[in-house]
Amino acid sequence: xxxxxxxxxxxxxxxxxxxxxxxxxxxxxxxxxxxxxxxxxxxxxxxxxxxxxxxxxxxxxxxxxxxxxxxxxxxxxxxxxxxxxxxxxxxxxxxxxxxxxxxxxxxxxxxxxxxxxxxxxxxxxxxxx
Length: 129
What we know:
- The chain contains 5 helices and no strands.
- The protein is mainly α.
- The chain has a single domain (20-121), classed as Four Helix Bundle (Hemerythrin (Met), subunit A).
- Helix 2 (20-43) runs antiparallel to helix 3, helix 2 (20-43) runs antiparallel to helix 5 and helix 4 runs antiparallel to helix 5.
């Protein structure tokens, strides 16, 4: 079995066995990854690569927004954060501005780190922590 196939199988298994909290953490990590790639591409003036990766980050934020359960008051706080990040990602993509992406990354790291702490305090085990 070739190595890439084994890695793909591992990733697929990890996703299929992850808890909802772990899946959310994976989404944050993916969004950070795509923002970093997009930022690097903006700095290198690689318009296509920047566009592709910023759109990937936007799709993750859109998905996170769609999955909010608004019966919980904290969901509105997340909606506000995600809405802001979505607007900033759109502007970053239009302008191909790495500084806007750096701002988005700062917020994403904060949200991700807070999410990790919530998971830890609630005894949610994760291979990503």
